[in-house]
Amino acid sequence: MKLSFFCALLSLWAAGSSWADTRAIGAQECHPNSQPWQAGLFYHTRNPYNLLCGAVLIGDRWLLTAAHCHKPYLWVRLGEHHLLKREGPEQLFRVTDFFPHPGFKKNFSAQDHNNDIMLIRLPRKARLGPAVQPLNFSHTCVSPGTQCLISGWGSVSSHKVQFPLTLQCANISILEPRLCHEAYLFQFSKHMLCAGLWEGGRGACQGDSGGPLVCHGTLAGVVLGGSEPCSGPRHPAVYSSVCHYVHWIRKTMKEN
Ligand SMILES: *[C@@H]1O[C@H](CO)[C@@H](O)[C@H](O)[C@H]1NC(C)=O
Ligand SMILES: *[C@@H]1O[C@H](CO)[C@@H](O)[C@H](O)[C@H]1NC(C)=O
Ligand SMILES: *[C@@H]1O[C@H](CO)[C@@H](O)[C@H](O)[C@H]1NC(C)=O
To answer: What are phi and psi of 56, to 5 degrees?
Structure first.
């Protein structure tokens, strides 16, 4: 099966997708601002219909996301929960400083999803508070069986793409890498994590790309992609494994 990126492409909007204040594929609304490192990446300032990807705050000026979310510029929202309501802690930044991993291949048709990870530098420091806090990233790699939490404003329905207005959370497990090898063959590599439910029904979907996989209270992965429709049985989602990129993250943050 083809491994597809989980960014919310603009073409999806044209294809009859809709918005609903509904429940998810196995997810539920997160307690507001309980994931203060969660960021949303948007094409335009005010229009929530232009969500592209998720991202994770890892320092007061730095976010981690997926390299396939790279655009000439994007709007970052921090402290966000309900996309249409102004609730107080929201912070907005226009970003142009992107640092995709140098090993990421931009040629999407080659189906090489390695090193799909990118740093974003904010133009000024984020104001930290209860609703905006960085997440430490994991230096040790997680093992299969670990319980983790994912969050995002990605699609909550796998057949007809439906986007929620509030941030959604779901508990999932790290699965054996061989299960993703079976599902995606050579497209799955050793710098990726396989996570979800083997029986399907819960997991990341379109619009969740770049968002966090939090295990033991630290960032273990960023959403890369999976099958379409998402969360089908035997097709868990795939994450870039953060523990393999600690050196590159540190070096890039130090030099820029
Ligand atoms: C992209 O990858 C495809 C499939 O491997 C290949 O045929 C094509 O030449 C590549 N394009 C570029 C610009 O490298
Ligand atoms: C993050 O890491 C720093 C330095 O290692 C540590 O002091 C801090 O307590 C950690 N924060 C959390 C929330 O684990
Ligand atoms: C995830 O699991 C934890 C611990 O079992 C539970 O407290 C939390 O409510 C769960 N969250 C979701 C979104 O299911």
So the answer is: -130, 130
> What count of other Cβ atoms lies within 10 Å of the Cβ of residue 94?
11
What DSSP state is assigned to residue 215? E
Residue nearest atom 2 of ligand 2, based on CA coordinates: 136
Q: Which residue has the higher pLDDT, 111 or 87?
A: 87
Pocket test of ligand 2: the residue of 62, 132, 136, 138 to mutate, having most ligand atoms within 8 Å of its CB, is 136
**Residue 164 lies inside a defined structural domain of this protein:** yes
**C-beta of 136 in contact with ligand 2 (< 6 A):** yes
Residue 244, C-beta contacts closer than 8 angstroms, at least 6 positions apart: 141, 190, 191
Minimum-distance ligand 2 atom for the alpha carbon of 217: 14
Range of the domain at 183: 31-255
What's the start-to-end Cα distance of the chain, in Å?
A: 38
User: Ligand 1: residues whose CB is within 6 Å?
Assistant: 107, 109-110
Q: What is the mean pLDDT of residues 132-153?
A: 95
Q: Name the domain count of the chain.
A: 1
Please report where in the chains the tokens 């054996």 appear, as a residue.
176
What is the value of pTM for the model shown? 0.89
